[in-house]
Design brief:
With 328 residues, this protein is α/β, with parallel strands linked by helices. The chain has one domain: 3-Layer(aba) Sandwich (Rossmann fold). The protein is globular.
Length: 328
């Protein structure tokens, strides 16, 4: 028992039908744009469709872990242990909701970059760790830190798709082109399968003219890339956007998804539509009927109703060393 959480080892036999896992990095080097909110609620919506989903917290702030109701201080290893190769990926997974597994994080992740600096192949550690679980989940979402360091590079090396949450205003666009260039660089040098698949507009105010103008500018930019060899040549702005909704901001403090906290609000409606679009956008991932091997994971059971959990003040952004861009 760790804190108020019981972590019994449980053997689960996942459904018989296998899907090739879609690994999606949710990325934007700007903080506060809705990355974690998008990972949590999109994954929860897909899990509610009886699709096995795993989410990976690669942010030292551990906001994904907190949002799903887990205290980072209770995590002994998590994603940090996987990256430094002291723990196996499947051994660190926590079952946090039906069909939804979490690789949690804590503040120790801050030190991962400096510890891996002399390791050969450090940028592909996560990809190798996840490889054995390709046939056990339908979706893997990676919550990236707000920087372009080694943690983000590991996410991009492990993923085939990138989803970029974006606020539709001028300053948010300033780093957008640079972000696309970074993804293109990883595509050419490390991961030729990596493609930007979607731009999700968050905190969208349909009453204002600026968000609509920004949306039109992005669509025009993406249309001009059609037919090129760029990693974003096939990217599209998702036809649904996430409206401003205070309930989305309140849900993390209770360790709940928006569907648990306020299932009838605009935020729940918008993320359900976004999840359905993501589910249907890639026709190439077809089911293959064969037996799935059992997966050993730890189940989280919380006694009683959870009390509001505020993000720990000790958690901070990565250090200056972590915020440096990676060079390849």
């Amino acid at each position: 028992m760790i804190g108020n959480y019981h972590l019994p080892v449980t053997i689960y036999q996942l459904p018989v039908t296998i899907y090739q896992m879609r690994t999606i990095a949710v990325l934007n080097q700007k903080g506060g744009v809705g990355k974690t909110t998008t990972v949590v609620n999109t994954a929860a919506a897909l899990a509610a469709m009886d699709l096995p989903v795993v989410v990976i917290d690669l942010d030292p702030q551990a906001h994904l872990t907190i949002h799903l109701g887990i205290e980072p201080q209770s995590i002994e290893s998590g994603s940090y242990g996987v990256l430094i190769k002291e723990a196996k990926f499947e051994q660190e997974l926590l079952l946090v909701r039906p069909n939804l597994w979490l690789l949690p994080a804590n503040i120790n992740l801050v030190g991962a970059e400096s510890e891996l600096v002399s390791i050969v192949g450090r940028e592909t550690i996560l990809r190798e760790a996840v490889q054995s679980s390709q046939e056990k989940f339908d979706y893997c979402f990676i919550d990236c830190p707000p920087s372009l360091g080694l943690l983000t590079l590991n996410a991009l090396a492990a993923a085939e798709e990138v989803l970029i949450p974006l606020q539709p205003h001028f300053l948010a666009l300033q780093g957008f082109g640079k972000l696309l260039q970074t993804i293109d660089l990883v595509n050419r040098r490390i991961n030729p399968n990596l493609k930007v698949k979607g731009i999700l507009l968050c905190m969208f105010d349909s009453r204002a003219s600026l968000p609509k103008e920004v949306k039109a500018d992005i669509e025009n930019f993406l249309n001009n890339a059609r037919g090129t060899n760029n990693a974003w040549a096939g990217a599209r702005v998702l036809p649904t956007f996430i409206r401003r909704n205070i309930k989305l901001a309140e849900a993390p403090s209770y360790g709940k998804t928006i569907f648990e906290y306020e299932p009838n609000c605009h935020g729940a409606e918008d993320y359900k539509k976004a999840a359905e679009y993501i589910r249907d956008m890639e026709a190439g991932y077809q089911a293959r009927a064969q037996d799935k091997p059992p997966l050993e994971i730890r189940e989280i059971s919380q006694p009683g109703s959870p009390s509001p959990t505020q993000p720990d003040s000790a958690l901070s952004y990565p250090s200056e060393e972590n915020n440096k861009e990676f060079h390849m």
